Amino acid sequence: MTTASDPAYPAHWEADVVLRDGGTARIRPITTEDAGRLVSFYDQVSDESKYYRFFAPHPRLSDRDVHRFTHHDYVDRVGLAATVGEEFIGTVRYDRIGPDGRPASAPADEAEVAFLVQDAHQGRGVASALLEHIGAVARERGIRRFAAEVLPANTKMIKVFTDAGYQQKRSFEDGSVHLTLDLEPTAESLAVQRAREQRAEARSVQRLLAPGSVAVVGVSRSGVGVGAAALRNLRDSGFRGHLYAVNEARAAGVEGDLLEGVRAYRSLREIDAPVDLAVVAVPAGRVPQVVADCGEHGVQGLVVLSAGYGESGPAGLDRQRELVRQVRSYGMRLIGPNAFGVINTAPEVVLNASLAPVPAPVPGRIGLFTQSGAIGMALLSALLRRGEGLSSFVSAGNRADVSGNDILQYWYEDEATDVALMYLETLGNPRKFTRLARRTAAVKPVVVAKGGRHTPAGHVVPGTRLPESTVSALLRQAGVIRVDTVTELVDVGLLLVSQPVPAGPRVAILGNSESLGFLTYDACLAQGLRPGAPLDLTTAASPADFGRAVAAALASDAHDAVVVTAIPWVNGGAGADDLADALRDAVAAHPGKPVAVVHVELAGFAESLSRADVRIPAYPAAERAVRAVAESVRYGQWRRANAESGHVPEYEDIDEAGAAAQLAGLLAEVGGSDGVLTLADSDAAALLARYGIRVLPTLPAPSADAAVKAAEALGYPVALKTTAPHLRHRADLGGVRLDLANEAALRRAYGELTGLLGSPVELLPVVQPMVPRGVDTVVRSVIDPAAGAVLSFGLAGVASELLGDTAHRIVPATDRDVAGLIRSIRAAPLLFGWRGSDPVDTPALEELLLRLSRLVDGHPEVVGVTLEPVVVATEGLSVLSATVRIARPPARTDLGPRTLPSY
Fold first, then answer.
1. Which of these, 296, 306, 305, lies nearest to 329 by C-alpha position?
2. Stretch (H or E) spanning 194
3. Which among 332, 429, 435 is positioned nearest to 16, based on CA atoms?
4. Do residues 389 and 366 touch, judged by C-beta distance below 8 A?
5. How many whole angstroms separate alpha carbon 897 and alpha carbon 137?
6. Tens digit of pLDDT for each residue in 561-590?
7. Per-residue pLDDT for 254 more than 50?
8. CA of 452: how far to CAs of 219, 427, 463, 650, in Å?
9. pTM for the model
């Protein structure tokens, strides 16, 4: 290997990462072309850092050093560099060593590792990121341990190793600290990695939403156009930082020129002060020069409003990929392109760098993320009309870089955000999104409206092949409140941000309209709530009557939530403000339970309810109010159920190493093919057996005589069944004969089967021993390219397939996950003694699911498993058939080192 164009160059090791301060860097293998960069990098490192690296004064690299540090075989000797632009800011290398500490090759599984980080970039988390990536590379190359020698005074590097979360040994030898790290990921190392990821990505978003200075590039003199609109919104919102306008057409040499009342410059390079955020609104063809100016000026992030990228076709998509590469090469992050903008209402910031034509949002407790600018504008307007403010708003457009995952990382620790609302058209990485959403939902609600089922133009991140129903199930598993429309998104968000989460599903209904009360009652039943009988206050009820009734309902232990219905008074009467005051007084006196109001033709009533400190959400239809209450109830149930996280059990009989060796051997037989291999039945059974999953023995029966011999080997009674693809798992078509107690019964059944359905060559009959009767179920696991491994469960049979009665969980599944999985299908009562039948052995079923989850989680080569049917009896279960598909695993997964999506 000599250059990055060499076929042996491991391009899949390249990755963009977010550092501790929110900036980005690129990690890549070092090549022979990097000699000049390495020397320049070393010249910028302090003498102290050089001493710590080499344990002696080492002022410059010799030619031999340069050759050694740039020539690698990428197996036994590997070097990685962290770069910003074309310059190195940190390096790491490992050299494989044997037991005697001398250079070695496989099967030696230990390597010596050493780092060097430029002093100006120390403290940014460069070494920690490099350790994650060099560790993943080492594991890929069969290295299991790192050894490092560190001087005791080099406390920063010692901390990098000790804080990584790996199992390690530490000793003091010959004046240095000797560290040995076991590279097998642990729960602690994964937790450390994800905590660092959260802090870094949250910080990168915080830099975009709370800049100290903003430059709008592309402001026209005429005051029309996207740039001018963004500049006016920034100016009129009262942005607390420094604001600059850039107009390349401004006459040279003119001092003090103003655009929209803001000091203007011909180029960002002319601004003699720091610029934290650039809002770019120039034609796509001019954006690269603007990005270069921003990078050279030290800008931290960009909001690119310009269109003409992925949404415009293949050429635009290529332009978009190059934009991301260029932005990240300068260590910046990007919102857009084709973005609608960002808003932050924090009083110390007051940033409105958006194209929103509505009045600027007031401060509030809702965070809003959209991919669509049009939907973002509609949601901003809807919240404003209903008197609700925002903490922050991001409309990411083509989301080529910053995505909903980054925003969730920010909202998780943002004290100004109580409720997260998201309109998503695609889930680029459902596995990561559900992981982040689960953690966020544990502390604040996450409400998602998912738009189109297909990837829109311009969204170049990988999509998911999972059915929409599966995506919904996975979101709900993560605690996400999934709604169908943007109207429901606002409805649910308003209730959650202003009202406490209910403790249960019991709903009190009261109001001055009996008919509206009954509509609300029916809506509660439809949503699975437990409503009490509606209390009719009659049309003569005064605001005081409403107040007393609401106070009594809130004080009662029989109710968890209250829905108030109100219609106008006949012949005048009290006003909307009086009724709103009465309801607010009752709620303020009895806090702790949510209240929602359904009103019909009460002008100004909703506005009155939203004006004071005690706010009550109002809805124009009973169904909308009840849907919001029901989602809040379900969210509360999820939070209580997940207060204690489940665990993944350990099973002593699992042979993980044996399974790995078997898979390696099977894949070696197919050579370098990237296709999927369906295992022979014997191989599938052997692999599953290594994880304690026993598949019932099956013997072929190509003739009646062969069937008899098979039955004698297995023992009577037996089952005779067809395995032809068009009859497989279709007992309803007559391809199965059960309880065949002797040879005569078997021969008779064989003749009936072949006479009715076709020849043995067509039917492919087999013989199996009989198992105890029970409920036939199906257990599956599939690998989605974006979501990762998904565990699925349902009952066997055409009815379940037709109705889509299947439940799903993300792997690895915990004991709580699988318990919920088998109980979440509609046909679950059949497992628990429906209509007097005996309950089946659900603990055995849960164990099977956990074992399968362990298999596919521990071996990414296993891309598909189907166990069908799994007969669950009153004691134990039997797996009658298994199909296993394997393929070479992807180079990186969500469990690998931190990395931004690549393009």
1. 296
2. helix 187-209
3. 332
4. yes
5. 10
6. 999 999 987 666 667 889 999 999 999 999
7. no
8. 34, 11, 12, 41
9. 0.87
As a whole number of angstroms, the distance between CA 860 and CA 48 comes to 44
Token duo for residue 152: 């005791």
- Residue 167 tokens, joined: 């199992």
Does 760 sit behind a cis peptide bond, omega within 30 degrees of 0 on the bond before it? no
**146-150, 372-376, 733-737, 882-886, range with the lowest pLDDT:** 733-737
Q: What is the DSSP annotation of 554-598?
A: HH-TT-SEEEEEE-PPTTS-S-HHHHHHHHHHHHHHS-SS-EEEE
Q: Are 481 and 448 in contact (CB under 8 A)?
A: yes
Q: Which of 447, 271, 255 is nearest to 369 (CA)?
A: 447
Task: Classify the phi-psi angles of 6: left when phi > 0, otherwise alpha if psi is within -120 to 50, otherwise beta.
Answer: beta
Q: How far apart are CA 6 and CA 143, in angstroms?
A: 24
Residue 444 CA to residue 438 CA, distance in Å, equals 10
Answer whether residue 456 shows pLDDT above 70: no
Task: Give the bridge partners for 678, in sequence order.
Answer: 885
- Of 780, 777, 779, 785, whose CA–CA distance to 466 is shortest? 785
Strand partners, 665: none
Q: φ and ψ at 460, to 5 degrees? A: -90, -5
Query: CA–CA separation, 300 vs 89, rounded Å?
Result: 17
DSSP state of 388: -
CA 318 to each of CA 11, 285, 301, 315, 727: distance values in angstroms, whole numbers, following the listed order: 19, 12, 21, 5, 48
Say if CB 387 and CB 615 are below 8 A apart: yes
Q: Count the neighbouring beta carbons within 10 Å of the beta carbon of residue 445.
A: 25
Q: Which residues pair with 173 in a beta bridge?
A: 176
Displacement of CA 696 from its chain's centroid (Å): 37
The reply to whether omega before 107 is within 30° of 0 (cis) is yes
Residue 422 CA to residue 403 CA, distance in Å, equals 11
Cβ-proximal residues to 256 (8 Å cutoff; 6+ apart), any chain? 263
Cross-strand pairs, 405: none
- Output the pLDDT for position 245: 95
876 Rama class: left (phi>0) / alpha (psi -120 to 50) / beta: left
Is residue 826 within 8 A of residue 803, CB to CB? The reply is yes
